[in-house]
Amino acid sequence: xxxLDLVRLFLAIFGISSLAGLAALLRSGRDLTPRSxxxxxxxxxxxxxxxxxFWYHYYPANIVFVFVVxxxxxxxxxxLLDFLLMVIRKGLKVSITVEEEDKS
Length: 104
Known about the structure:
By secondary structure, the protein is mainly alpha-helical. About 75% of the residues lie in helices and about 0% in strands. The protein has one domain (about 5-90).
């Protein structure tokens, strides 16, 4: 695959991954602001492209696999970002309770 085709492939991966991240944002039910939409598009697009480049290095002949994995990374990227922000805001509060079983 020549260099121009690779650029087109990764631009397509960025675009599709960005849309997958936007879909995840829409499903989350959060308020849509220009900042949240831009964050979603960039985060998911860049994560999908990075994952695509990583997998392309190992599987250059299987473009469909690279494309699908990148889309899934775009979907998961927004969910991962939401989870990390929730952990940062609320902190890690772990609570363990031990109760005895009532033997009556």
